[in-house]
Design goal:
By secondary structure, the chain is of the alpha/beta class. It is built from six helices and nine strands; from the N terminus they run H-E-E-H-E-H-E-H-E-E-H-E-H-E-E. Bound molecules: S-adenosylmethionine (SAM).
């Protein structure tokens, strides 16, 4: 492996936006198209071209550069001692599990995933392990094949739980509630969970509060993330 690669998020969405963007610039070249008695003004498609093209480029820039800044923003919200037990849920190619491991001395950083191909390019456990070896944190990291909605860890195992762009991929509301319940169960007293996502933030917050935890939403960073990612800070006081 030649260099670190954390993958492109939602590659099908990025591809479709690029296609719509290109069509939006090409269709206006026809000016008007006659369909039966109707004269269709094609110049209106330019708006679609600009907005889809902008979103495609912004999503790509997030995956290539913004996610490294966003990782630091998430990890800076934890008061690290170095001896923490850390869990990264939906680790993908290891963005957060590796970042957390670099802040540990005697602690351990565990990443779990189910390796959904449509959520991230080349989303395979081998690629995550390559990144871990490349970053020199193999001794502090463990990767497991586990689903967020039903984890094998004992109650009160983790000081820190982190997750970026994972929970919205659980399409069923009840299953998202189970995942939040699992996070509440495995988080130690005094522990912190930082959940970053672009949808359902208020729903996650309600779930954690119902489990007796404290939760506050930190607004999205519009410069470094697209779609804009908000952060939920959950504490088990
Ligand atoms: C968009 S990727 C983000 C990966 C990584 N957190 C990052 O920021 O680069 C979402 C990840 O969540 C994983 N995922 C989706 N549903 C999951 C579930 N129920 N349990 C565990 N992982 C899941 C996907 O396989 C994918 O690796």
């Amino acid at each position: 492996m030649r260099k670190i690669d954390y993958g492109i998020d939602a590659p099908h969405v990025v591809r479709n936006l690029f296609i719509m963007g290109i069509l939006g610039f090409l269709l206006p070249l026809f000016h008007t198209v006659k369909i039966g008695p109707v004269n269709l003004d094609m110049t209106g498609f330019i708006g679609m071209g600009i907005s889809c093209g902008f979103m495609a480029v912004w999503m790509l820039l997030y995956s290539l550069y913004g996610k490294l800044r966003h990782r630091d923003r998430i990890l800076n919200m934890v008061n690290w001692k170095g001896n923490e037990m850390v869990l990264d849920i939906g680790t993908g190619r290891g963005l957060l599990v590796i970042g957390a491991a670099k802040r540990l001395t005697t602690g351990k950083s565990i990443g779990i995933d189910i390796w959904n191909a449509e959520d991230l390019t080349n989303n395979k456990i081998e690629n995550t392990i390559n990144n871990i070896v490349f970053e020199g944190v193999k001794d502090r990291v463990e990767i497991k094949n586990e689903n967020a909605i039903s984890m094998s860890f004992a109650d009160n195992t983790f000081d820190v739980v982190i997750s970026n762009l994972c929970l919205h991929n659980i399409y069923n509301k009840e299953d998202r509630k189970k995942a939040c319940g699992e996070i509440s169960r495995i988080l130690k007293k005094g522990g912190t969970a930082i959940i970053s996502d672009f949808r359902h933030m208020k729903e996650y917050k309600r779930n954690f509060i119902q489990s007796g935890l404290k939760a506050e939403i930190v607004p999205a960073s519009y410069f470094t993330t697209f779609p804009p990612l908000a952060i939920l800070k959950v504490t088990n006081e």
